[in-house]
Amino acid sequence: MKLPQVIAGLLMAQEKYDANAFSECFSDDAVVFDEGKTYHGKKEIRQWNEMTNVKYKTKYEPLEISIAGDTITLTAEVSGTFDGSPAIIKYHFETRQGKITYLNIR
């Protein structure tokens, strides 16, 4: 499956549990919504990723991707140390100039 460069970079960073590289895929003013919480900017996104790496040890297997301009929807099988693993989860991204500006995980 051919993934946009920023999404491929995000998944590669997650595979290595590299929260710094993960957060660098986002714009400075990016917003992430996950599990009812909102994270603003690279610092909070890095901290959120560090926390989820420790807590869940998540791995992503991309199943489907749809791209409409700067909007990307990734469907992935996510496994880790969480109840219900593995789960099929949709990631709704908005991008600008090769960076993620918005991510909503449902």
Kindly describe this structure:
This protein has 106 residues and is α+β, with helices and mostly antiparallel strands. It is 30% helix and 46% strand. It has helices spanning 5-15, 19-23, 41-56; strands at residues 26-34, 37-40, 59-68, 71-79, 87-96, 99-105. The chain has a six-stranded mixed sheet, with helices on one face. A hairpin with a 2-residue loop joins strand 3 (59-68) and strand 4 (71-79). The two termini are 21 Å apart.
Radius of gyration: 13 Å
What percent strand?
over 45%
The run of helices and strands is HHEEHEEEE
Q: State the strand order across the main sheet.
A: 2-1-6-5-4-3
Q: Which percent bin holds the helix content? A: 25-40%
From the N-terminal CA to the C-terminal CA, the straight-line distance is 21 Å
- Estimate the mean pLDDT confidence: 97
CATH topology descriptor: Nuclear Transport Factor 2, Chain: A
Given as residue ranges, the uncertain stretches (5+ residues, pLDDT < 50) are none
Considering the chains and any ligands shown, give keywords for the structure:
about 110 residues, alpha+beta, Nuclear Transport Factor 2, Chain: A, six-stranded mixed beta sheet, 6 strands, globular, SnoaL-like, Nuclear transport factor 2 family protein, NTF2-like_dom_sf
